[in-house]
Amino acid sequence: MKDNRTEEFQELRPLLFSIAYRILGSVAEAEDAVQEAWLRFAGSPTEVRSPKAFLSAAVTRLSIDVLRSARVRREEYVGPWFPEPLLADPYEDPVRSAELADSVSMAALLLLERLSPLERAVFVLREVFDFGFPEVASAVGRSEAACRQLAVRARRHMAEGRPRFEADRRERDALAARFFEALHEGDLAGLQELLAADVSLVSDAGGKAPQLARAVLGAQNVARLLGAVIPLLFRIDVTCEQHEVNGQPGAIFRDRHGKVLQTFSLDILDGRVQAIRLVLNPDKLGHVGPVADAWSIAEEVKQARRAGE
């Protein structure tokens, strides 16, 4: 029985993680929820008729409980809060790949933050993973009627600010490639041309890494900042590795030893970069790889700037 349950769990694990991550916005917490769901599944003394239903319900309820306590911590968070960057979603559905990628984007996850934990769980199960309302009701422990009402409210909130992304992913990726090429070349004019007039650049360091005092707004200001800082990073052997982040174009910046300094995530629409989100909080980067000392790199950047003056 245990061997069979192990096989069933491993088959469902990508789905379980993807559900938990969208509810929690945290890789570490999602992995913990999946592991706890496995322990409950493995330890169930009775036969489990539907492993998918059992495990989906378990991981959803665990995630709701964690999210409720996490809300309090996030209210005390220093500066803007972003989800932990996700480099690859383990769950794949070729029929709905575009929707799945958009639902895990930074912009979508930040919108989900506006929902109550129950609304968020219902939206993720119903709208993202296409669970039927009987399955949703069982997972969250509410009636089908209540879940339908939660789904309506969640859809309304999401629709009010729902992000739209470049429909043609090839065009999106080509624009992202031009953006990072201009970044590498220090091409200020080229960068500015690729940015939307009202583009925003925001960083999440959580008080644990150097952080922008406030969001940088406008194409000229964002291009000027990137044009001033990024060449200095390259001068001290920081590298920029293009990589999809949360289903959208992005990059990982590493120090000279290959340790992770930050991630970049781009929102692209109408042929322009609409938003740039940086995650520097070391607590959110450990799953990407060994984390760099951002403070010492900031000091090196200052020295490089003084040397070039």
TrEMBL record:
The RNA polymerase sigma-70 region domain covers which part of the protein? Answer: 9-71
UniProt keyword Transcription, yes or no:
yes
Pfam families the record matches: Sigma70_r2, Sigma70_r4_2
Name the keywords, alphabetized. Answer: Sigma factor, Transcription, Transcription regulation
Looking at the record's lineage, which domain of life comes first?
Answer: Bacteria
Stored Gene3D superfamilies:
1.10.1740.10, 3.10.450.50, Winged helix-like DNA-binding domain superfamily/Winged helix DNA-binding domain
User: Domain named RNA polymerase sigma factor 70 region 4 type: which ranges?
Assistant: 107-158
Transmembrane regions listed in the UniProt entry: none
Q: By its UniProt entry, which InterPro entries does this protein fall under?
A: ECF_Sigma-70_Domain, NTF2-like_dom_sf, RNA_pol_sigma-70_dom, RNA_pol_sigma-70_ECF, RNA_pol_sigma70_r2, RNA_pol_sigma70_r4_t2, RNA_pol_sigma_r2, RNA_pol_sigma_r3/r4-like
PANTHER family per the record? ECF RNA POLYMERASE SIGMA FACTOR SIGJ, SIGMA 19 FACTOR
Its assembly, as annotated, is: Interacts transiently with the RNA polymerase catalytic core formed by RpoA, RpoB, RpoC and RpoZ (2 alpha, 1 beta, 1 beta' and 1 omega subunit) to form the RNA polymerase holoenzyme that can initiate transcription.
Name the protein family.
Belongs to the sigma-70 factor family. ECF subfamily.
UniProt-recorded name of the protein: RNA polymerase sigma-70 factor
